[in-house]
Amino acid sequence: MTPEEHLEGFGTIGGELQLGGIPLSRLAARVGSTPFFAYDRGRLDERVDRLRAALPARVELSYAMKANPMPAVVQHLAGRVDRIDVASALELRAALDTGIPAAQVSFAGPGKTAAEIRQAVAAGVIVEVESGTEFGRVAEAGERLGLVPRVAVRVNPDFAVKGSGMRMGGGPQQFGIDAEQVPGVLREYAASGIDVVGFHVFAGSQNLNAAIIGEAQRRTVDLIGTLAEHLAAPVRYLNLGGGFGIPYVERDRPLDLDAVASDLHALVDGPIAERFPDATPVIELGRYLVGECGVYVTQVVDRKVSRGKTYLVVDGGMHHQLAASGNFGQAIRRNYPLIVGNRAGAPSSETVTVVGCLCTPLDLLGDDVELPAAQIDDLVVIFQAGAYGLTASPTAFLGHPAPAEVLV
């Protein structure tokens, strides 16, 4: 998708990008300083409504809080989704502070400490166990607290998902218990007093191919059908993962949600209804819910020409928005969509490179991009910044101030 296509999703007022119905320059004045992240609650609601309309009514929607843990965003989504998934004790407390029932919170991720597991068991959330060690820690916590822990088994499937930005299943993984090991682990802890409510399979993230997502979901249901034979009780929790991607670079096309939903309807009405009549199917989404609702706004502080190349130097950079810079050079870097937000109606007139304020050539936000003639104090806006932005970036690098975050 082009920057112009992303801009259409937000709209303009008087030639400026608007966020929550507020012109960008007015919002910047309200925030008081740049850089900042802004998240548009209207676009959040649109995405949830679109998912609700497309997905089967039986499917519950879980927000993977790791994508954007800003308290205002989490609080807003807690009233719109069915569940919240957390990955640390801090995220657990933030989720419970929203008032969502503890039974609707799941705690996933490898490396949970004994203390974190005790907190989760005491709170009554679903602990998604990722190893035999975690099973043992859950059993110990339940015995010490006099409670019956509720767990779901995170399974590392025996298949991989092609086309995912990150593969999180198939082959050796730090995530989940290998599918072939699950029966033995369930036998080992069958008498431990743990209530195993079901399974979670998450094979990959950031996938834009509906057919691949559908195939992964079908194979997930088949796998869980085999593993469920080793449970003493019916499956009540069936987390199919998510992995729905969003378009980051110009060549990316949006995920065909209708095609994903069509496959999921067939799966829910067929194999899931037949094999797991007591189960609640769950789709867990982070990036797909919040990624396109957010922007990163940074101000031009210098404009310079070096041997024929024009640079816009901004007051932000990779310490706030690492992904847009190329993740420390570990990936093939492609430009994220960006515009001059206060000149949204102006035609492109020059080729520039947008760099941040850090002492490294890796601090690159836009390389040879076509923009209107931007001047000092103009506002550069990077789209697709609602997920894995601030908290996924090296904010302490060089000691610059942390950016503000606003939900409008």
Question: What descriptive keywords fit this protein?
Answer:
408 residues; alpha/beta; Lyase, Ornithine Decarboxylase, Chain A, domain 1; TIM Barrel; 2 domains; eight-stranded mixed sheet; eight-stranded parallel barrel; 12 helices; DCO2ase_PEP1; Ala_racemase/Decarboxylase_C; PLP-binding_barrel; pyridoxal phosphate
Fold blueprint:
Layout: H1 3-10, E1 12-13, E2 16-19, E3 22-23, H2 24-31, E4 36-39, H3 41-54, E5 60-64, H4 71-78, E6 83-86, H5 89-97, E7 105-107, H6 114-123, E8 126-129, H7 132-145, E9 150-156, E10 166-167, E11 177-178, H8 182-188, E12 195-201, E13 204-205, H9 210-227, E14 237-239, H10 257-275, E15 280-285, H11 287-290, E16 294-306, E17 309-314, H12 322-325, E18 338-340, E19 350-355, E20 364-371, E21 379-382, E22 404-407
Parallel strand pairs: 4-22, 5-6, 5-15, 6-7, 7-8, 8-9, 9-11, 9-12, 12-14, 14-15, 17-19
Antiparallel strand pairs: 1-2, 2-3, 4-16, 10-13, 16-17, 16-21, 18-21, 19-20
Helix pairs in contact: 6-7, 9-10
